[in-house]
Write a structure and sequence with these properties.
The protein has 16 helices and 20 strands. The protein is an alpha/beta fold. It folds into 3 domains: 160 residues, FAD/NAD(P)-binding domain; 151 residues, Polyamine Oxidase, Chain A, domain 2, CATH 3.90.660.20; 89 residues, protoporphyrinogen ix oxidase, domain 3 (Orthogonal Bundle). A 7-stranded mixed beta sheet has the order 8-7-16-17-18-15-19. Strands 10-2-1-14-20 form a 5-stranded parallel beta sheet, covered by helices on one side. Helix 1 links the parallel strand 1 and strand 2. Flavin-adenine dinucleotide (FAD) binds next to helix 1, strand 15, strand 19 and helix 16.
């Protein structure tokens, strides 16, 4: 039995890890010259100062345990660090001015973001009827139903829309935030559901695992270590061009003219990439995959002198709703969130692009940095030039899971011929732990199709 895995991001590498545990031969084919896909960490340098930045993900939620478990299996728990809370000091842009997201009761009652009516509607959440079925709905419909239109427009929509780089009116709640529907089902609402969960986790707190984790040397440490401990056939610069049936096996053709034969194939690639690869073996599934939307996304990390950053307001993050029609989607002050990755006297910012203005991801460096400098000057009063900067771009690289997505994925999987499996961010969850789970499950499923 030999399995081919197409794609060497966290999903493909996790699938290979699972196969290795089961003693199955595998080949991982990765088009790029490095492992990890969107997990990419880099060091920026100014004189003798070093700054660790992340191109893609920077923190992992431990409510989904798969990343922690994988790190444990790889013997990496000592490299894990706690990036702290993600909720303090977050601002939202509303009508061109900055407002802190009200996370404390005092802030909530004094914030001008919501009218009195909007605040009362939000506080009435526990009294809204609970929905307990399994049908999907949009993130926006869910928030409107539970917390009201104003909460959706003014801060919850921008925050969730920012996290998922998406339009909350289209995004599936069952893919992005199933936990919110679980809280509604179990507790009758978000407030009660959250309290119940806090109580339960308080009881279990003996082995304290932080809510979010990262790795001392960046998240890429995880994929680097994974690739290092994989002992199968691992090939970089191996762009797969096509997959065809040959008898009961699959012939996988690679861009350099070579090919391999495999008994099963795991596609750890995005829906549009997989669609092109399976058109000869599963035409209808390929057609349906091509209908799944993917959006541009990118990040730009910039290092400034601390003295070039206005002293007020002290913000950790800024979310920018699409209705504000800006060229950037969010800003994180990385050096405040993770000071150990920076050097005193400098400030590191990470700017997210591609959601509100997709074209930003396609701009050449010169135009990109000019556009970002203008945005940062207008929004945050930063008029100085950065000391250094770097950009990471993924054109059509961010999957959008629209309402009904999980059912569509189920149907597509039923159209696949034997021993082909789909896994990764386009299918059942976009976060890194979701990708690890899907990679491992795909590997397990090829040997036990009923599971
Ligand atoms: C800016 C950003 C921030 C994020 N932040 C977080 C976060 O904080 N926490 C979190 O949990 N998640 C976050 N995510 C999501 C998470 O990073 C991704 O969903 C996850 O890394 C995707 O992994 P993957 O292996 O499925 O896909 P990818 O990383 O996209 O890997 C797919 C691989 O397949 C290869 N490939 C494609 N076509 C072929 C082919 N024909 N032949 C061979 N190889 C091919 C590609 O080169 C690529 O390496 C973020 C994502 C982005 C972009």
């Amino acid at each position: 039995m030999h399995i081919a895995i197409i794609g060497g991001g966290i999903t493909g590498l996790s699938a290979a890890w699972e196969l290795q545990q089961r003693g199955i031969d595998y080949t991982v084919l990765e088009a790029a010259e490095r492992w990890g896909g969107k997990i990419v960490s880099a060091i920026l340098e100014i004189d003798n100062s070093k700054f660790l930045v992340e191109g893609g993900p920077d923190t992992l939620v431990t409510r989904k345990p798969e990343a922690w478990e994988l790190a444990n299996e790889l013997g990496m728990l000592e490299q894990i660090t706690d990036p702290g809370s993600e909720t303090s000091g977050i601002y939202v842009l509303d009508n061109a001015s900055l407002h802190p997201i009200p996370v404390s009761p005092t802030r909530f009652f004094s914030t001008p973001l919501l009218t009195l009516r909007g605040k009362l509607r939000l506080l009435a959440e526990p009294f809204q009827p609970a929905r307990r079925d399994d049908e999907d709905e949009s993130l926006a419909d869910f928030v409107r139903r539970r917390l009201g239109q104003e909460a959706l427009d003014k801060f919850i929509g921008p925050v969730l829309g920012g996290i998922y780089n998406t339009d909350p009116e289209k995004q599936s709640i069952l893919v992005s935030s199933p936990v919110m529907r679980e809280m509604e089902r179990e507790g009758g609402g978000l407030f009660v559901g959250a309290l119940q969960r806090a109580f339960r986790s308080g009881k279990k707190k003996k082995n304290k695992i932080p809510r979010f984790i990262t790795f001392k040397n960046g998240l890429q440490a995880l994929t680097d270590e994974l690739a290092r401990q994989l002992k199968g056939d691992l090939r970089l610069n191996a762009q797969v061009d096509s997959v065809r049936l040959e008898g009961v096996q699959y012939r996988i053709s690679i861009g350099d003219g070579s090919s391999i034969l495999a008994d099963g194939v795991i596609f750890a690639t995005l829906a549009n990439q997989t669609s092109a690869l399976i058109k000869d073996v599963a035409a209808e599934a390929s057609h349906r995959l091509s209908a799944m939307r993917q959006q541009n996304i990118g990040t730009v990390s910039l290092v400034y002198r601390e003295s070039d950053i206005p002293e007020k307001p002290v913000i950790n993050g800024l979310m920018i709703p699409r209705r504000e029609k800006r060229l950037i989607d969010a800003v994180t002050f990385t050096s405040r969130k993770m000071p150990e990755r920076s050097t005193e006297g400098y400030a590191v910012l990470r700017v997210f692009i591609g959601g509100g203005a997709a074209q930003m991801v396609e701009l050449p460096d010169r135009h990109l940095i000019e556009a970002i400098k203008k945005e940062l000057a207008e929004l945050l009063g930063i008029t100085a030039a950065p000391q250094t900067w770097t950009a990471f771009r993924w054109e059509c690289g961010f999957p959008q899971a629209e309402v009904g997505h999980l059912k569509r994925v189920d149907e597509i999987e039923k159209l696949l011929p034997p021993n082909l499996a789909l896994a990764g961010s386009s299918y059942r969850g976009i976060a890194v732990p979701d990708c690890i789970r899907q990679g491992r499950e795909a590997a397990a499923k090829l040997f036990n199709p009923q599971s």
